[in-house]
């Protein structure tokens, strides 16, 4: 029951964010992607494409 309440609250929060301020997602998603790629590069995590590292 507790997990349902937590999931419901997260889903509601995301819904409100998208409806109230879609610009936050437009700015936030690319920033998160670039940050993740930069962190992976610092940790020397290889990205594979067709079996070859890029």
Write structural notes for this entry.
The protein has two helices and two strands, in the order ααββ. By secondary structure, the chain is mainly alpha-helical. A two-stranded antiparallel ribbon has the order 1-2. The longest helix is centred in the middle third of the chain and has 21 residues, at 22-42. The termini are far apart. The mean pLDDT is 77.
Low-confidence stretches: none
Q: What percent strand? A: 5-15%
Average residue-wise pLDDT = 77
The level of helicity is over 70%
State the end-to-end CA separation: 45 Å
Q: What is the helix/strand order?
A: HHEE
The largest sheet is:
2 strands, antiparallel
What order do the strands of the largest sheet run in, or round the barrel if closed? 1-2
Beta strands, count: 2
In DSSP terms (H or I, runs of 4 or more residues), the helix count works out at 2
User: Radius of gyration, Cα only, in angstroms?
Assistant: 17 Å
What is the 3D shape?
Answer: elongated
Based on secondary structure, the structural category is mainly alpha
């Amino acid at each position: 029951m507790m997990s349902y309440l937590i999931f419901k609250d997260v889903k509601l929060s995301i819904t409100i964010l998208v409806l109230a301020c879609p610009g936050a997602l437009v700015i936030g998603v690319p920033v998160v992607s670039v940050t993740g790629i930069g962190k992976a590069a610092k940790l020397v995590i290889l990205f594979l494409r067709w079996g070859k590292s890029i």
